[in-house]
């Protein structure tokens, strides 16, 4: 089947955005902390992780010119990175609680996990709205969202460690 499309589909673009944003934040964090790792084996795992994430990001960034209307958007400070890292933690917490609830047989534990899931959802919302209000997560502007991804991933790849 031949597909003549000028750009990636919206759903695959958004999935790719999630992967790039998550991995760029992870790469940034690994590079900022690798020098603090004293255990040689763990440091080797960090270095392997850094190389793997750099390779993943480079491969994914090649698709960015094929996303709908990508353009460069610059932001000099790292506040967005720290907020994005926190958002990723909250998003992972929501997913983890939801999965844990489906595996829980004990009613009292299910009740506690459900309460904590609701708190995690509120936490995620607080962080998301913080980021949205400051244009760190322009979720309704795909062009800026993808440009942020591209810039953050490129900065993470180029960051020395």
3D structure, described in words:
This protein has about 160 residues and is mainly alpha-helical. It has 2 domains: about 1-75 and about 140-160; about 75-135. Helices cover about 70% and strands about 0% of the residues. The chain contains 5 helices and no strands. The mean pLDDT is about 90.
Describe this protein with a few key phrases.
virion, single chain, 2 domains, capsid protein, Spore_coat_CotF-like, Ferritin-like, 161 residues
- Mean pLDDT equals 89
Let me know the largest β-sheet.
Answer: none
Tally the beta strands.
0
Rg, Å, rounded? 18 Å
Distance between the termini: 45 Å
Share in helix: over 70%
Shape: globular
Poorly predicted runs: none
Number of separate structural domains: 2
Kindly name the structural category.
mainly alpha
Strand content: under 5%
The H-and-E topology, N to C, reads as: HHHHH
How many helices in DSSP terms? Answer: 5
Subcellular location: Spore coat
Keywords: Capsid protein, Sporulation, Virion
Organism: Thermoactinomyces mirandus
Protein name: Spore coat protein
Q: How do the strands and helices of this protein lay out in sequence?
A:
Elements: H1 10-33, H2 40-61, H3 79-102, H4 107-133, H5 142-158
